[in-house]
Amino acid sequence: MAIRDLTSERLYVDSGLSEGQHIVLSEDQAHYLLHVLRLTAGASLLVFNGRDGEWRADLKDVKKRGATLAVIERVREQTAASDIDYLFAPLKRSRLDYMVQKAVEMGVSRLRPVITHRTIAERINLERMRANVIEAAEQCGVLNVPDVSEPVRFDKAIDAWSDGRTLIFCDESASAEAPLDTLAAIGHGPLAVLIGPEGGFDPVERNLLLSRPFVTAIWLGPRIMRADTAAVAALALVNATRGDWR
Amino acid sequence: MAIRDLTSERLYVDSGLSEGQHIVLSEDQAHYLLHVLRLTAGASLLVFNGRDGEWRADLKDVKKRGATLAVIERVREQTAASDIDYLFAPLKRSRLDYMVQKAVEMGVSRLRPVITHRTIAERINLERMRANVIEAAEQCGVLNVPDVSEPVRFDKAIDAWSDGRTLIFCDESASAEAPLDTLAAIGHGPLAVLIGPEGGFDPVERNLLLSRPFVTAIWLGPRIMRADTAAVAALALVNATRGDWR
User: Fold this and answer.
1) Hey, which residues 20-49 in chain A have their CB within 8 Å of chain B?
2) Are residues B215 and B96 located together in one domain of the fold?
3) Whole-structure pTM value
4) Are the C-beta atoms of residues B217 and A98 closer than 8 Å to each other?
5) Do A15 and B234 touch, CB atoms closer than 8 A?
6) A217 in the same domain as A147
7) B170 contacts on A by Cβ (under 8 Å)
């Protein structure tokens, strides 16, 4: 890992990437490169699309509201995506942005908002969430851009669960068993991590979870955490025991 | 652990705590309880001082700018403090607040700001940092309030190191060894976790670190992280292998 370097310039694009290709930037992308990053014609940057690895590209044909990228050479091969779902109860706006960024930095493959009884966010702006995911991927050197699912009611998500994926549930009422021991006892196969709302799941929701065979509760120590802290902590343990930190 | 419950009311006080005691609140404390939390005479809350455990207290003698707390009964015994130093390069204001809160939630015992060549924060407001530590401790059910040290230059902190404490350094250039294996190989004794500035340590600083026998570099996966994310991730692994998450 690296601590983020604030000087890196990296852009997500939709189109395919191959040598010699020219990409016409959208107005928003051109604005970002020309007026936020203040790049000028001839500047080099990194581009990626989540499929074809990372490429060096040069900024060309700079006009007032547009520009083109000339794709020069591949600098990183596409890596295999991890397979960790991240289920979370959305928080209010700025805190939610933060939570989404953190999940991308921790390498989840899908963000799945779930609406619980105590979920605080009144309305979920999926476009904003997707834009946040892309921005975090740009800044954090991620080659695989996580998917963002439509929000679903928590009980429906549990009822529709496909049993092959283990759901790791950060349970505020779990007994104090070492989380590394709990994680070591989970069988092979894909994983999901669930972080509840601030204030916790209500008793009906918690019982629903604990009644399902695909659910494993883990304990994250004796202190109270904000939801985004618990998410990073749980994903660090999952990455270290089962993910790509090995 | 519990995800933070936004309805809990908890106050740090300086004075000793014992049954039947009366505490005259400072103007700031009275303002917080009466006008921010909107408590009225007779309301119960939790108080702690970092030494005598956690007590239930009742709000009394409410006046326009003051009030008294009557200490009723102890509800939690004081717990033993952990012994994890947290060394970090301060970030700019709002990000620094966040970083301090996270460290408290993760149970560090001392916050030690270090000034590196690439540290961004121009001026460090220690009063604000201490206030932030107390606020995070109030919100996160922490009984031991971490100390905040005066900022020191990074090289001086390393030169003055007392060898008994292992310094775990989240190294962006570390070889990809599983961090749980690295942590398992560290001997007993007190620990410190060091998170560098965004943009990383400069080569002179990194060589200084790697030349010291008390330093262990750990790798935190293939992605780039913000400094506060790396801090939570590293402290989660340390708590799970060596701290109070066992």
Assistant:
1) none
2) yes
3) 0.91
4) no
5) no
6) yes
7) 1, 3
Would you write out chain A's pLDDT as a tens digit for each of its 246 residues? 455 554 558 999 999 999 999 999 999 999 999 998 899 999 999 999 999 999 999 999 999 889 999 999 999 999 888 899 999 999 887 888 999 999 999 999 999 999 999 887 768 899 999 999 999 999 888 999 999 999 999 999 999 998 789 999 998 777 889 999 999 999 889 999 999 988 789 999 999 999 999 999 999 998 889 899 999 999 999 999 999 998
Question: Using CB atoms and an 8 Å cut-off, which of residues 199-218 of chain B contact chain A?
Answer: 199-200
**How many domains in chain B?**
2
User: How would you classify the pairing of strands B110-115 and B84-88?
Assistant: parallel
Q: Which of residues 140-169 of B touch A (CB under 8 A)?
A: 140-142
Best to test chain A binding among B224, B238, B242, B246 (most A CBs inside 10 Å) = B224
Q: Are residues B98 and B212 in the same domain?
A: yes
Supply the CATH number for residue B92's domain: 3.40.1280.10
- A71 with A112, same domain: the answer is no
Could you tell me the residue range of the domain that residue A166 belongs to?
Answer: 84-241
Assess whether B146 and B184 both reside in one domain.
Answer: yes
In this predicted complex, what is the ipTM? 0.90
